[in-house]
Amino acid sequence: MRAGARAPTPARVARAARSPRRRRQRLTVERGIGYIRQMDPGFDPAAFGQWAQRAFTDVQDAITRRDLTAVADRLSPQEYARLQGQCDQLRGARQTNRVEQIQCRRVEVSEAWQESGQDWVTAYLAASLVDYTVDDATGALVDGSKTPQDIEEYWTFTRPVARSPGVSRRSRPLNPSGGCALTRASKWIVGVVAALILL
């Protein structure tokens, strides 16, 4: 079950946006993006947000199927093991966790930094979705709700730092039909997923 949290009032959100802490955080994100762009000038936070959103929905679909094969190359060994454990537990209990009607309202880069030869970027995702678990034999609801819930998650992605600025020239479209380019998108993997917070 997800832990509940009160929705912030519009006044609190406005105050937080103007707060010195919020300005410092924005400057820190810009500085981190600047470090990443030193070795990868084509890094685009907006394109990264779109890619993170797709990774989010793809991982949810994989968990529903209880088969992480399609997303294994986008998960760190630790996250793969954690999520595979959830899938194995569901399979053993003969249950299926369904995440449906995903509507991402906001995706943005909330942190960016370099450490130990790795680029790290955290994406903040605010979405509405339906999350419930059913018994495979009877179809009965075991956990969760079929009512849409507002959630927040922080997904941290990592990749090796590019060895030279020239690597960034190998950009490719986010999808085959075009759209924004995400430099070396296939190299990013999910390193950490924070706990869900109800708004």
Q: Would you kindly provide a written description of the structure presented here, covering whatever features stand out?
A:
It is a single chain. Strand 4 (172-175) and strand 5 form a beta hairpin. The chain has a single domain, classed as Nuclear Transport Factor 2, Chain: A. Helices cover 33% and strands 38% of the residues. It has helices at residues 10-18, 20-39, 45-65, 77-92; strands at 95-115, 118-135, 141-160, 172-175, 178-182, 189-193, 197-198. The relative contact order is 0.20. It is an alpha+beta fold.
Task: Furnish the topology, listing elements before pairings.
Blueprint: H1 10-18, H2 20-39, H3 45-65, H4 77-92, E1 95-115, E2 118-135, E3 141-160, E4 172-175, E5 178-182, E6 189-193, E7 197-198
Antiparallel strand pairs: 1-2, 2-3, 3-6, 3-7, 4-5
